[in-house]
Amino acid sequence: MTEKRKWYQMKERAAGTKRLMFMLYVYRLFGKKAVRFLTFWVSLCAFLASKQVRDYAKINLTVISSYCKENGISCPEPTMINCFKNVFNFSNALLDNMEIFAGEYDVNKIFFDKDEDKKIFYEDIKARKGIFFICSHTGNINVLRMFFKNKDPLQRSDVNILLSQEQCKVFNSFLKKVYETGKKKMHNTVSLFPVEEINIDTSIELKERLDNGEIAFMAGDRLSAGTANLTFTHKFFAKDVEFPVGTFKMAQLMETPVYFIGALKGKNDTYKIYLKKFSPLQSKKDTLTKMENEYVEFIEQLTIIDPLQFYHFYGLFV
């Protein structure tokens, strides 16, 4: 039986900074297709070498597939081929991040699922209200950064990202180096806030930034070591799953528009943005509960669209 390990208990499986920089050089010299070819073989070796990754990918797809069958929804079967596709999709998302952080991803390849959601979203951006986005690890939310590098001040927003500094140290360090080489192509700044160091001063600073029209991203689907006991439990694909309550309390403290958001990859390197603007209630307690419930429903629906872009290779369901 697979041992239940939480995300923050997992060791990073990265190729190392030198190998990642080599991939960047290949990208510069030969383009994305050449790097994707290398990525396929690296992903295959990692998949075959790690029983843990194979097991968790299979568990996740089994749970999602069973839920979909019970509800009459078409879904990929939890075969080993589909499990590998899940891992390969994740590797390709990391490759896209390299292109995004270098400021070279084509914004014309990004579309919105619904025009009415896009209209509401752009109205909030142009009104400079500041927005708190609650994202997930289904798809690749980093692609949305391309909207906020615009030269037009009415569409440009500085970005604040709340993320774990303990996980993915190697890859995050690599992306930082890529960002430094490509930031001349961007027209905004990106600030990182480690979730392990969030305190009252962090909240005050972040609120000031959002009040000035900046935006913030924070994931609502993974626990961190420092907040492992600050959770709420919700049915997710008919299983009891823990979520970090801190994300939703932080969103509530900001007193700015809150959006649930996801980005799924399609054909020809395109991405589709899925949005849901949250409507608060009068009661703070009821608002928090409503936000938690609607977020879980949102990411469940997002995952059903393409379960092979569900990137949780740890003991989420066991």
Can you describe this structure?
With 318 residues, this protein is an alpha/beta fold. The chain has a single domain (7-309), classed as Glycerol-3-phosphate (1)-acyltransferase. It has nine helices and nine strands. It has helices at residues 17-30, 32-49, 51-70, 80-101, 115-126, 169-182, 200-211, 245-254, 284-305; strands spanning 110-112, 131-135, 159-163, 190-194, 215-219, 231-236, 239-244, 258-265, 271-277. The strands form two sheets. It has a seven-stranded mixed β-sheet. Strands 6-7 form a two-stranded antiparallel ribbon. The longest helix is centred in the N-terminal third of the chain and has 22 residues, at 80-101. It is globular and about 50 Å long.
What would the keywords be for this entry?
two-stranded antiparallel ribbon, Glycerol-3-phosphate (1)-acyltransferase, 318 residues, globular, 45% helix, alpha/beta
Give the arrangement of secondary structure elements.
Blueprint: H1 17-30, H2 32-49, H3 51-70, H4 80-101, E1 110-112, H5 115-126, E2 131-135, E3 159-163, H6 169-182, E4 190-194, H7 200-211, E5 215-219, E6 231-236, E7 239-244, H8 245-254, E8 258-265, E9 271-277, H9 284-305
Parallel strand pairs: 1-9, 2-5, 2-8, 3-4, 3-5
Antiparallel strand pairs: 6-7, 8-9
